[in-house]
Amino acid sequence: MRAIRAIARRELAAIFGSPIAWILLAVYLVLTGWFFYTDVAFFVTFGAQVLATGLWRFVFIDFRLATLLVVPLVTMRLFSEERKLGTMELLWTFPVRDVQLVLGKFLAAWVFVLVLIVCAMLPLAVFRIFHPFDLGPPAAGLLGLLLLGTAFVACGLAASTLTENQVVAAMLTYGLLVFFWFMTWNEAAGNERLIRVLLLFSLFDHYYDFAVGTIQTVHVAYFLLFTAFFLFAALRSLQTRSWRGVD
Amino acid sequence: MDDSVPAIRVERLGKRFGTTVAVDDVSFEVGRGEVVGFLGPNGAGKSTTMRMLTGVFPPSSGRAFVAGHDVARDPLAARQAIGYLPERTALYGDMDVSGYLDFVAEMKRVDRAAVRSAVARAMDATAIGPVARRRIADLSKGYRQRVGIAQALLGDPPVLILDEPTSGLDPEQVSEIRQLVHGLGAERTVILSTHILSEVESTCSRVMVMNRGRILAVDEPHRLEGRLREHRETFVRVAGAEETARAVLLGVPGVTGAVVAERGPDGIDWLVRSPQAVDPRREIAAAVVGAGLGLVEIHARPMSLEEIFLALVGKGDRGAPDGAPGGEIHARD
């Protein structure tokens, strides 16, 4: 536990110590703030009645985009930078297990994403002062967004173990996430049976129910499994140094 | 650590990456408190061997023990016993020195209450106290190297492995780091990898020579010389005519050759060859003086580590050494 905490703390200091973190935070808040504003305007203009389907659905589906854009830029440096600097080699000589390295880094990036998402909820809080609303549906949306962010972090972390080039790591993460998003977009591309299988894996089909204010165990389990899978992949990828070498 | 357990024991260690054999059937032992020089050209397998010892990756074959702990079966205990300075001293440039050392102390599971004092001791030993609050990225290369060594010292490991600790430093920094390493050897077992021979001569009690993934020799520097030499060289500085001196020197019983090394203001420097078994110094001195020439200086010329190294590596290249594991010079022509 102590090693995980030490790694996470160092990583967080590195994240917040770089201007990139603050730029990403600003971009994320501007995007989510704009989305929220336009969604409220849409809701009012078209005189929708039900907040869950008329407002929250759009808000959380839009926030998903901002999250998809920003998280890979947070995670790209996690292992890539260590490999580039050569600090990875030293980490491996400390009496620390690979799984602790993975979890420490994951925790740090996750905390940063948590900060992003919590800050993005500020407009909702302000909105509630003027228009009190039931907290249930947006709470479900928030949980969904957090689970989505967690899954993104795990995927980005795994990608960053593969290369010492941060841009490559980010592009790889975008590729994977967008694939998991788009794979069920065009039903005509596959037969019904295939689509049904693909739906099981689709990131955003599992997210949709959270956005409209419901929490289903199967979706929660999906995101946790998605996260666990990529953390495991990251761990295995680190262990390839055994036959791939360090340089 | 139990006194009877060697600091490092390596048994038929091997490592391959795909079809490339990086380390091939290497065996050696390093006793407690020894400072051992690890020599070899780039790509000889030194770094790979050290990475296996430090637990960066496991061996493909054979076994290695650090302070009695098997690096493959009990990697965390083995790593706990080692302080490592990698070849590329890579540090987190964005951290300040003491923050970085705190982090390493946590990673090395230094007792929580002792972190502060452990960091202070490591900074003391490497004289980096004055830069404790500076960002690592802003330090000179010499100071960064010291931070790297301080990091290795944290957790009080009985074994230190330093991979080319002086590479890329200026001469003054080199001598400072050498002194530092020399001091560390007083209490710890140190393996010092380098391709700078004078470094080994000045700091190490034993030398291991590695080339192409194999250990070619393990011995004290001066004993290596005895085993490798095919003939003896005596240095003589003679004042007087060159031709007379040559005739006199070649006339000494046992001498097989004499060549001029240098012509200086106070005489000509000769290198006189004789069979390994014959020490002709007295006879040479008597002959030179007897011929009325001036004997300015005479001494047996030791083989430099450079020559030993080239001789060993050259032999390794020529004949495939048979598989005698470590400690022996494989091929003698």
SSE topology sketch:
The complex is a heterodimer of chains A (247) and B (333).
Chain A: H1 2-17, H2 19-45, H3 51-75, H4 80-85, H5 87-93, H6 98-120, H7 122-130, H8 136-160, H9 166-182, H10 192-201, H11 203-211, H12 217-239, H13 241-244
Helix pairs in contact in A: 1-6, 2-3, 3-6, 3-8, 3-9, 3-11, 6-8, 6-12, 8-9, 8-11, 8-12, 11-12
Chain B: E1 8-17, E2 20-30, E3 35-39, H1 46-54, E4 61-66, E5 69-70, H2 75-80, E6 82-85, H3 97-107, H4 115-125, H5 141-153, E7 159-163, H6 171-184, E8 189-194, H7 197-203, E9 206-211, E10 214-219, H8 221-228, E11 231-239, H9 242-251, E12 257-264, E13 267-275, H10 281-290, E14 294-300, H11 305-318
Helix pairs in contact in B: 3-4, 4-5, 8-11
SSE succession of chain B: EEEHEEHEHHHEHEHEEHEHEEHEH
Report how far the terminal alpha carbons of chain B are from each other. 42 Å
Output the radius of gyration of chain B: 24 Å
The computed structural class of chain A is mainly alpha
Instruction: Please tell me what the overall shape of chain A is.
Output: globular
Placed side by side, the strands forming the largest sheet of chain B appear as 6-7-8-3-9-10
Rg of chain A over CA atoms, rounded to whole Å, is 19 Å
What's the main sheet of chain B like?
A: 6 strands, mixed
CATH class of the domain at 8-81 and 157-225 in chain B: Alpha Beta
Number of E-state strands of chain A: 0
Spatial gap, N to C terminus of chain A: 29 Å
Question: What's the CATH H-level homologous superfamily of the domain at 8-81 and 157-225 in chain B?
Answer: P-loop containing nucleotide triphosphate hydrolases
Unreliable sequence segments of chain B: 318-333
Question: Can you tell me the CATH topology of the domain at 8-81 and 157-225 in chain B?
Answer: Rossmann fold
Summarize the helix and strand pattern of chain A as letters: HHHHHHHHHHHHH
Q: Biggest interface: chains and residue counts? A: A-B, 29 and 32 residues
Strand content of chain B: 25-35%
Largest sheet of chain A: none
